[in-house]
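Onboarding guide, step 5: your first structure request.
Type a short instruction followed by the sequence, for example:

Predict the 3D structure of this protein.
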Amino acid sequence: MDTVEALKKAKIVQEEYFKYSLNQGYPVSLGDMAHVVQLYAEVDVHRIISVGYGAEHIFGRLERSEGGAEIVLSSGLNECHKRYVIIKELSHLIIDTDDSFTKDFNGLVTGLIDDSYQQIDHDDALQSENIAHYVACELLLPFKLRQGLIDSLASGDTTYYKIAKNYLIPETVVKSILHGPMHKALHVIMDKVG
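The system replies with structure tokens like these:
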């Protein structure tokens, strides 16, 4: 799946979220978003568990089974990182098909350490991870809100930390969303999403 198609699906999930959730603003309700994603993807997430990975570069993964899926998180994550990782793993349910998700966990980790996941729409085994990141960012901090936040940063009215605190996502993710290569590339892509 390409980034445009994935972000179109994210937009549908956002619309359904705002029809369903009593929370009509941001930060999104993690429980409500999880419910909407599960309904959209027709997959039941049985549980979310925390484990000690023993490696700082592994934050979580989605494990699929015949009866649904479970999300495994690193036990060392703070609440903002947990929210981001849960939404990113749920994003796989939105975008992946049976033959498109990453099955080689070791190869995936190697690729993530190599920073190759920052490229958009590459055809290697990391495409699913890359696109899931974009979808999660869109669900947590929609593109339509980003320019206003960038302007507030430039004028000194806010900081990355305040934005992270308001949206309950990691400050590093906020920086990536607002000033990383993703932000520049998404200007072109979001025109196609509509």
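Each response can be followed by summary notes, for example: Residues 3-141 form a domain with the Arc Repressor Mutant, subunit A fold (CATH 1.10.10).
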